[in-house]
Design a protein that fits this description.
The protein is α+β, with helices and mostly antiparallel strands. 27% of the residues lie in helices and 26% in strands. It has a single domain, classed as Cytidine Deaminase, domain 2 (3-Layer(aba) Sandwich).
Length: 132
């Protein structure tokens, strides 16, 4: 029987890792945003953002998705990203990544606040698809 995991559990997991991570210079940052996702298999994966020089870095959602992929999963049931004060909707790059990782992710519940979500399909109506 599949254990039911709520958005509150994902928020709790993201809050565990959000915060300031010390890097080589104070101009660089990591962990100001954290993400947690639940796969359709019932597993939770987390990640943090990294911002360093020359535009190198990535979003917290990318980090969580990379962790998910290491475990050979691609389908996301729900995802949330947050900083220390509020939930942050994913940027366009993150939305495209979720779609391109697995087209079934159009059904993913993307939380845009603690009580409201939209499907990836709703958030990404004009997605890039090279086969069209």
């Amino acid at each position: 029987m599949k254990k039911i995991i709520t958005i509150e559990k994902l928020i709790e997991e993201a809050k565990k890792i959000v915060g300031k991570y010390e890097l080589s210079t104070p101009d660089f940052s990591a962990g100001s945003v954290a993400a947690a996702l639940l796969t359709t298999n019932g597993n939770i994966y987390t990640g943090i953002n990294i911002e360093v020089a020359c535009g190198i870095g990535f979003c917290a959602e990318h980090s969580a998705i990379a962790q998910m992929l290491k475990h050979r999963e691609t389908q996301i049931e729900m995802i949330v990203a947050l900083d220390t004060t509020i939930i942050r909707p994913p940027c366009g790059r993150c939305r495209e990544l979720m779609f391109q990782i697995d087209y079934k992710n159009l059904n993913t519940k993307v939380y845009i606040s603690r009580k409201k979500y939209m499907t990836l399909d709703e958030l990404l109506p004009c997605r890039w698809n090279p086969s069209l």
